Automatic annotation (TrEMBL), chain A:
Name of this chain's protein: Phosphate transport system permease protein PstA
Top-level lineage group: Bacteria
Coiled-coil spans in chain: none
Subcellular location as annotated: Cell membrane
Keyword Transmembrane (UniProt): yes
Domain (ABC transmembrane type-1) ranges: 74-294
GO MF annotations in UniProt: phosphate transmembrane transporter activity
Keywords: Cell membrane, Membrane, Phosphate transport, Transmembrane, Transmembrane helix, Transport
A GO CC annotation given for this chain: plasma membrane
Cross-referenced InterPro entries: MetI-like, MetI-like_sf, Phosphate_PstA, Phosphate_transprt_permease
BP-aspect Gene Ontology terms: phosphate ion transmembrane transport
Length: 306, 333
């Protein structure tokens, strides 16, 4: 009898603990979801009414702000993400593969330093690019340091550790038996990586890249020191296949959505605030569309990020 | 508007491929950055200049300190500041010239429920508000200046600039002249440490802070107060007259000062009887070997551009200063 009572008590306590802890978990999830919901709701309620086609087709108008748009900021953000991807994807993915394949002190050091790079505040990376790129270039060619390239470089540096770590994590999830089968059939290591491991991990790697892009797309601090901002859509005459055409210029100060939001949101002018809200919504929507498109384009991958 | 409308889709389509393959003719956009004090005017100038000549001038309002730093680093084609560069800053930036563009008034904008526009303040009272010695709107020293105005017992929230600012330079230069306590405890500079209050980046932010904060008082360029429909104070000048900050009172103060040959002079606390005391020139900073496009823009700004100053809330240059500034610009390579 005594034993049975003790067991009952024990069971009851465990059930209670389970119930309480489960309650906390559910509560935490709900709070997180509510936060996200509130942000999105707030953004949509303020931003939707100010979205209009002119925002996508016009440039800022400093005489009549209501008539202005942010076409160049949208294009600028897309370009920055493009340049950042060109820099960070090869480095990040190759680095990630190295982390999985290599053993030893150097690989450990690389992983540690990648984490350190990941922890560096974005504004410090902006200052670094100013000192390493914007300033030296300005000495040779005054007035040319602030540029889309500098901004892309700053965002690219931020993306490298993000892409590298997610690539590594995903590659580690690929079952070792797959590699063993491939190697057992006589495939070389690079053939195994290229034809077996990477295709299996494709979906997860893409997800990691999208997360990295989403993370840097909203960065303002590094852009303050690298692209400066622009009221115009900088263009230049270029020779493409023998024909003179006007193309967007990247070697000069450009604009980007987070910077425009930052400048307009602190502005005293209410019309600027309206555009800032709309711009914030456009930025979120852009990231969402990217993510969905990337998921759709790469559907069928075996491993997703957990 | 048609000329400003971009065919974004077409441009994006050309996009990347063209970017990388294209032989680079340098972009012909001219980039300037600096003071927020004259930014509304410079941006209007840029827009009018684009319509007149097709040349794009990109001016970004990042604060006077940023303007000085970036012209020193040669990262921009021109900088802008409303505090003259210090001797040590000049040493780091050989060949940089100060060109005065317009004069402006720094006004004390406030947001107090039930208090009318244009209350009267004196320099020492403003200094003590910023020092934290006067903490409530119904302080006897304020009510004594404004008989018949019913001030609430609300706390005064001083708003100041958190970034390096020529506006701060003008403001603290004035207060240090009229209040020994202010000179001792805060001093003069583009970035000083105020003992009390809330900070904002740029004239834009300080104006926004004043508009949003009940009981706030802040110093901003006249145009920012006007554009945001903020109430602002009349300030007693050296001759004892309470002067409303206007274009005319700013011009009067500017005309009373004799600028040295390099134009670097702060002109606060004017001796003129009808001059507003918290007034300053704002300068564009250019390298002696600047681009031809910058020279042309400055020539236009000192000539045609001056007509746009007053409607935007700034005082055009006095005739003799304008002539001298133009002569310096014409001498640029």
């Amino acid at each position: 009898m005594a034993v049975s009572t003790r067991t009952d008590l024990h069971l009851a306590r465990r059930r209670t603990t389970n119930f309480v802890m489960l309650g906390f978990c559910v509560l935490a999830s709900i709070v997180a979801l509510v936060m996200l919901g509130l942000v999105l709701y707030f953004l949509a309620s303020q931003g939707l009414k100010h979205i209009s086609p002119r925002l996508f087709t016009r440039l800022p108008n400093n005489i009549d702000i209501k008539q202005g748009g942010i076409a160049h900021s949208i294009f600028g953000t897309l370009t920055l993400l493009g340049i950042a991807s060109l820099i960070s994807l090869p480095l990040g993915i190759l680095g990630g593969i190295y982390q999985v394949e290599a053993r030893g002190r150097f690989a450990f050091a690389v992983r540690f330093l990648t984490d350190v790079l990941n922890g560096i505040p974005s504004i410090v990376i902006g200052i670094f690019v100013y000192a390493a790129y914007v300033y030296p270039l300005s000495q040779r060619n005054p007035g040319s340091g602030f540029s889309g390239y500098a901004g892309g470089l700053a965002l690219g540096i931020m993306m490298i550790p993000l892409v590298m770590r997610t690539t590594e994590e995903i590659l580690r999830l690929v079952p070792f038996s797959l590699r063993e089968a491939s190697l057992g059939l006589g495939a070389t290591r690079w053939r195994t990586m290229w034809s077996i491991v990477l295709p299996v991990a494709r979906g997860g790697v893409i997800t990691g890249i999208m997360l990295a892009l989403a993370r840097v797309a909203g960065e303002t601090a590094p852009l303050l020191f690298t692209i400066l901002g622009n009221e115009y859509f900088p263009t230049k005459q270029a020779n493409v296949l023998g024909a003179k055409v006007t193309v967007p210029a990247m070697n000069t100060a450009i604009d980007a959505l987070p910077l425009r939001i930052f400048n307009y949101a602190v502005g005293p002018n209410l019309e600027q605030h309206d555009i800032a809200w709309a711009a914030a919504l456009i930025l979120i929507a852009m990231i969402l569309i990217f993510s969905i498109a990337a998921r759709y384009a790469t559907r069928g991958g075996v491993l997703e990020e957990h | 508007m048609n000329s400003r409308t971009i065919k974004a889709a077409a441009v994006a389509a050309i996009g990347f491929g063209a970017l990388t393959g294209a032989s680079a003719a340098r972009a012909q956009i001219i980039t300037g950055a600096g003071a927020s004090f004259p930014a509304p005017l410079y941006q209007r100038w840029a827009q009018a200049y684009k319509q007149a000549t097709g040349q794009q001038i990109n001016y970004q309002s990042i604060g006077s300190s940023g303007g000085v730093k970036n012209i020193t680093a040669r990262a921009v084609d021109f900088g802008a500041s409303d505090g003259p560069m210090t001797a040590s800053e000049m040493q780091n930036a050989p060949g940089v010239l100060h060109i005065p563009m317009v004069a402006g008034a720094v006004v004390l904008a406030y947001n107090v429920r039930g208090v009318p526009e244009h209350i009267k303040l004196t320099g020492p009272v403003i200094a003590d508000i910023y020092l934290g010695a006067i903490t409530r709107w119904n302080d006897p020293r304020i009510t004594a200046l404004n008989p018949g105005v019913n001030f609430p017992a609300a706390n005064i929230v001083p708003a100041f600039r958190s970034d390096g600012s020529g506006t701060t330079n003008i403001f603290t230069n004035y207060l240090s002249q009229v209040s020994p306590a202010f000179r001792e405890r805060v001093g003069v500079g583009k970035a000083v440490k105020f003992p009390k209050g809330i900070g904002g980046k740029g004239n834009e932010s300080v104006a926004a802070l004043v508009r949003q904060t009940p009981g706030a008082i802040g110093y901003v360029e006249l145009a920012y107060a006007e554009n945001n429909k903020l109430s602002y104070a009349d300030v007693q000048n050296r001759k004892g007259n309470f002067i409303r900050p206007t274009i005319a009172a700013t011009t009067t103060a500017a005309e009373a000062a004799r600028l040295p040959s390099d134009f670097r002079l702060i002109i606060t606390n004017t001796p003129a009887a009808q001059g507003y005391p918290i007034v300053g020139y704002t300068w564009i900073l250019v390298r002696r070997d600047t681009k031809p496009g910058v020279k042309k823009f400055l020539q236009w700004a000192l000539d045609e551009g001056q007509k746009m100053a007053a409607p935007s809330g700034y005082a055009p240059l006095p005739a003799n200063v304008q002539k001298r500034a133009l002569a310096v610009v014409n001498s640029l390579q």
